[in-house]
């Protein structure tokens, strides 16, 4: 018998973290590397939020809290859902965790039994299928290709549902593609789900406030209120509020699910940081003025990257509706030879050779379930983005 659990043999390490670590390693070795792998804003946390955390420390709010969140934060979250999403949740229907990832993981641990299936549209955030596997479930990957704007269709969803289906994981705007579903597209999916009452919806809305070109964000339980009793609506403060390191995510759903998730958290991490919780109260209740301003900066960066990538030989980059990622195709480079003499056989080879030749770190699309593409995070400075795109243009131009 081996010492390490068999479940880990089914799980791959995070490709995005691997790329970030590789870029940092090369930087330490003296290489000029631009890392475009990490999915976090380069903006600093707003001052009012930092001051709220400092005040919490000075006021002695440094003890254990309720396992899944202080009442003040749950109330702020319920108010946010009512104000921004037309969703009526009681504070008792809210769970606060150490980041959005833990909210998702707690829900899967609390609900999955061996053989249960979870529908995961691809491209997907790298952790979705791996968390399902760790929790004993079976990820059912459904392709949402470029021809459909990287969005799953109602027909594809219908075809993927079986008697064993327990969840659909829904992410809009998407990591890794930036694709966002219109209200009509969400309605088409919820119409399918209404016909299958055994299927629950895990809606990851983490990039809700990062949408562009007058796009209007909607979430499944808002579009189809009859689904609210089998929907977990997940969000957090990491992206819109530039609070990635504070580690606060939250979800809202039926009382029975939230209680089960609290039981899981009580025997794993217990409560999130008390200081971070008070900072999140200020984030949700305080001024929101900086959010649209930051979104405009991200839109400018998106437009810069899309324009420059589409000038690179062999690259095709669609314009995403939201988040801070682009997901260009490198199909036009497959079969060509890099300056190192190695042939670009797939997207993983493309990103490997790009890093070695030009010092630009991106993530291969196959890590997100769809190649030959690659993901760029444009949550960095315009200067770094312009330089990295010039390097990508040069790299592609040197392929033979």
UniProtKB/TrEMBL annotation:
GO terms of biological process kind: amino acid metabolic process
Xref: InterPro entries: Aminotransferase_I/II_large, AspAT/PAT-like, NHTrfase_class1_PyrdxlP-BS, PyrdxlP-dep_Trfase, PyrdxlP-dep_Trfase_major, PyrdxlP-dep_Trfase_small
Catalytic activity: L-aspartate + 2-oxoglutarate = oxaloacetate + L-glutamate
Domain called Aminotransferase class I/classII large: residue spans: 32-392
Annotated GO MF terms: L-aspartate:2-oxoglutarate aminotransferase activity; pyridoxal phosphate binding
Record EC number: 2.6.1.-
Cofactor(s) required for function per UniProt: pyridoxal 5'-phosphate
Enzyme class: transferase
A Pfam short name: Aminotran_1_2
CDD domains recorded: AAT_like
Keywords, alphabetical: Aminotransferase, Pyridoxal phosphate, Transferase
Similarity-based family: Belongs to the class-I pyridoxal-phosphate-dependent aminotransferase family.
Quaternary structure note: Homodimer.
Name by which UniProt lists this protein: Aminotransferase
Source species of the chain: Pseudoxanthobacter soli DSM 19599
């Amino acid at each position: 018998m081996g010492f390490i659990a068999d479940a880990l043999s089914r799980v791959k390490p995070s490709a995005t973290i691997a790329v970030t670590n590789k870029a940092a390693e090369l930087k330490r070795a003296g290489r000029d590397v631009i890392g475009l792998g990490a999915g976090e804003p380069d903006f600093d946390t707003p001052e009012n939020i930092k001051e709220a955390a400092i005040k919490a420390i000075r006021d002695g709010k440094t003890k254990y809290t309720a396992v899944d969140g202080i009442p003040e934060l749950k109330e702020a979250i319920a108010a946010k859902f009512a104000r921004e999403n037309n969703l009526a949740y009681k504070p008792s229907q809210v769970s606060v965790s150490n980041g959005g990832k833990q909210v998702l993981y707690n829900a899967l641990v609390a609900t999955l039994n061996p053989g249960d299936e979870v529908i995961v549209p691809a491209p997907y955030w790298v952790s979705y299928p791996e968390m399902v596997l760790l929790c004993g479930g079976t990820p059912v990957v459904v392709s949402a290709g470029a021809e459909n704007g990287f969005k799953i269709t109602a027909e594809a969803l219908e075809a993927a549902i079986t008697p064993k289906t327990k969840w659909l994981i829904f992410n809009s705007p998407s990591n890794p593609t930036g694709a966002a579903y219109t209200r009509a597209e969400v309605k088409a999916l919820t119409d399918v789900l209404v016909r299958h009452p055994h299927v629950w919806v895990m809606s990851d809305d983490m990039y809700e406030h990062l949408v562009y070109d007058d796009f209007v964000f909607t979430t499944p339980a808002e579009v189809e209120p009859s689904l609210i009793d089998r929907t977990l609506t997940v969000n957090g403060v990491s992206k819109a509020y530039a609070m990635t390191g504070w580690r606060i995510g939250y979800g809202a759903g039926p009382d029975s699910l939230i209680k089960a998730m609290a039981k899981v958290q009580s025997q794993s991490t217990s409560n999130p940081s008390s200081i971070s919780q008070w900072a999140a109260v200020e984030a949700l209740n305080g001024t929101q003025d900086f959010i649209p301003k930051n979104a405009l900066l991200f839109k400018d960066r998106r437009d810069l990257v899309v324009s420059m990538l589409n000038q690179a030989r062999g690259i095709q980059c669609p314009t995403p509706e939201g988040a801070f990622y682009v997901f260009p195709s490198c199909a036009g480079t497959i079969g060509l030879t890099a300056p190192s003499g190695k042939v670009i056989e797939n997207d993983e080879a493309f990103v490997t050779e790009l890093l070695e030749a030009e010092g630009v770190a991106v993530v291969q699309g196959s890590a997100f379930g769809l190649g030959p593409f690659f993901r760029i995070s444009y949550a960095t400075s315009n200067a770094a983005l312009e330089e990295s795109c010039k390097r990508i243009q040069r790299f592609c131009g040197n392929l033979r």
